Amino acid sequence: MTTFDDLPRVTLAHVPTPLEALGSLREQFGGPRVWIKRDDCTGLAGGGNKTRKLEYLIAEAEAEGAQAVVTFGALQSNHARQTAAACARRGLACDLILAPAVARTADDYERSGNLLLDDLLGARLHRLSPGQKAQAMLEDVLAQHAAAGRRAYVIPTGGSNATGALGYVRAAREIAAQCRDRGIYPAAVIHATSTGGTQSGLLAGFRLEGLSTRVIGINVYTPNSADLATRIEALTAEVLARLAPGMAPAPLGVEVVDGFLGDGYGVPTEAMAAAVRVLASGEAVLLDPVYSGKAMAGLLAMLERQAFVEDDDLIFLHTGGAQALSVYTSAFAGG
Ligand SMILES: Cc1ncc(COP(=O)(O)O)c(C=O)c1O
Fold first, then answer.
1. 321 in contact with ligand 1, CB cutoff 6 A
2. How far apart are alpha carbons 315 and 21 in whole angstroms?
3. Whether the CB of 46 sits within 6 Å of ligand 1
4. 45-63 per-position pLDDT tens digit
């Protein structure tokens, strides 16, 4: 019988990532104990949550005989940077199709941060102009690989399909083991959600571990969170069907929380900037302006309004992204 540990996976991440106490939050807000799961420390050229997904995606690419990988993202995509790093590590060519998804001209948004790293990591960058379609660019890139006799493997935005989500099933198992070792029963894991693979993997993983831990995704991506929740529900069901085909369907309780996106994906908010400062100055933990900073703003707001009980243990999943801090200097001006 194939077990979860037999699934094809390449080793890219430094795991287990630390699970650390965020003591200063309890001092400041009272209430539950808050822990931070340091997936910003997965180690692959800056790390972040995509590294775990890429362990399964790159294994699938290699099993299919691919010599090249193509993926998509915003100009400052962490997923794109980690894909470029995974390809560099595995000796694969990497094409990144990058969209100007964020209306930002200030700072070094179009040159520095993750974009600089993508280039250093040896990826070919295909920058779309406003209105240009990613699909047309993809076809062009695939045709170039085909003409050169190279097989290419395409990873969807954010690595969020049933293969990529396996990385977070594995993370859920890791969290469950760390909590067992410390005698913690986590009431909830809170994290930034955008393309949904992280949340789906965690939901499926906790279900398979028999844990009722809530997975609370702070929406940092879309004004239409109902669609995002539907997508997460479908992807979780797909992952569970793959890993436990006989498991009886039960409500998954997908929780996508609104109120922290601000004016849109990648657009800074005051609450994000404040949350980044709280964690940096209080804990020496660097969050990011697009994902984990907004997710932490969500958690701080929940702590302020006492959304959890005193005796709860909560885990904030740090999904990475600090490589983009320096292209958002104006968001932190005057702090
Ligand atoms: C730093 C960071 N946090 C969170 C996320 C969201 O993860 P997911 O796309 O799996 O919802 C991303 C994805 O782009 C990310 O780069």
1. yes
2. 9
3. no
4. 999 999 999 999 999 999 9
- Specify the CATH number of the domain 50-159: 3.40.50.1100
CATH of 4-49+161-332, one of 3.40.50.720, 3.40.50.1100, 3.10.270.10, 3.40.50.300: 3.40.50.1100
The answer to whether 174 and 208 have CB atoms below 8 angstroms apart is no
Does the annotation count 160 as an active-site position?
no
For the whole model, what pTM was predicted? 0.97
Q: How far is the CA of 303 from the centre of ligand 1 (A)?
A: 23
Q: What is the pLDDT of residues 159-204, one digit of tens each?
A: 999 999 999 999 999 999 999 999 999 999 999 999 999 999 999 9
